[in-house]
Amino acid sequence: MILTTTLSFGLFANFSGNGDNNSVQTALPPHRNEDPNWHGKANLGYSFLSGNSGSTTAAFSAELRYDTDVDQWLFTANYAGIRQADRTTGDAQTTSRLYAIAGQYNHFIDDEKNVYAYCNTNIRQDVPVGLDLRWTVGAGGGATLYLNEEKDASISLEVGPTFVHEENIGSTEEVDTAAGRVATRYESPLWSEWLITATGEFLQSFDETDDRSFVGELNLNWKFRENWYFAATAAVAWDGTPAPDFESTDRRFVLSVGHNF
């Protein structure tokens, strides 16, 4: 098992056409805005990692969402420049970069915006953990269940087929497979200043039983003053068929301070 610990302090800048500051994540619940609105978030951080690689990382992430009364567009991008230390000598040099971009389109089927059809795609390269390239294209259906009358607590589920292309470090073969995708998201306020969110995505190949993967994330945010908050994040990434000489599981733990405006 790989234990990858990340301690990151970044400034989160949220921008929104109507002053709203909703976060966007996997299998996000449909928002109920009737007028077209742009929403976004940008994050700049610095991280120290250990596990498969000892390294320092300068990271940038951004999210952009466009809402109308019938559909929703979501775009995300992540970048990390990694300066990696040699396990034997301790010397450090810039050896790799992480890139990840994704897009999803949701079309609401009912007037309440609880049921929707989606199509999505993402591209990811994560060389330090053995992933040279992975891209996916998929489509399916999703539904959101609100857990209270205020509709600030919800759980969402998405299911559909996905095509996966994967290239692993140290492997001479490229993998192309059709897979089933299940993704979920949970969000709920704990107290007036606390918010918890959890997301997960599971892919299972239709061709190979062992070819499956899972990514999950748990976030706890505490607003300690107006527009300022602390956030704690625990995330896990598991691959049933990892690259040669790499482990199946990576974990990361992130502490951050954020600002909304």
Any key phrases for this structure?
single chain, 261 residues, mainly beta, Outer membrane phospholipase (ompla), Chain C, 13-stranded antiparallel beta sheet, 13 strands, disordered N terminus
Short recap of the structure:
With 261 residues, this protein is mainly β. The chain has a single domain (11-259), classed as Outer membrane phospholipase (ompla), Chain C, CATH 2.40.230.
How would you describe this protein?
There is one protein chain. This protein has a single domain, classed as Outer membrane phospholipase (ompla), Chain C, CATH 2.40.230.20. Helices cover 0% and strands 67% of the residues. The protein has no helices and 13 strands. It has a 13-stranded antiparallel beta sheet with strand order 1-2-3-4-5-6-7-8-9-10-11-12-13, with no helix packed on it. The chain starts with 10 loop residues before the first strand and ends with a strand.
Question: What is the element layout, followed by pairings?
Answer:
Blueprint: E1 11-16, E2 37-49, E3 54-67, E4 71-85, E5 92-108, E6 115-126, E7 131-146, E8 154-168, E9 174-191, E10 194-205, E11 212-225, E12 228-239, E13 249-259
Antiparallel strand pairs: 1-2, 2-3, 3-4, 4-5, 5-6, 6-7, 7-8, 8-9, 9-10, 10-11, 11-12, 12-13
Taken as a percent bin, the fraction of beta residues is over 45%
Q: Main beta sheet, described?
A: 13 strands, antiparallel
CATH superfamily: Nucleoside-specific channel-forming protein, Tsx-like
**Annotated CATH topology:** Outer membrane phospholipase (ompla), Chain C
Total strands: the figure is 13
Would you tell me the structural class of the helices and strands? mainly beta
User: What is the number of helical segments per DSSP (H or I, 4+ residues)?
Assistant: 0
Report the span from N to C terminus.
Answer: 39 Å
Strand order of the largest sheet: 1-2-3-4-5-6-7-8-9-10-11-12-13
CATH class descriptor: Mainly Beta
Radius of gyration: 19 Å
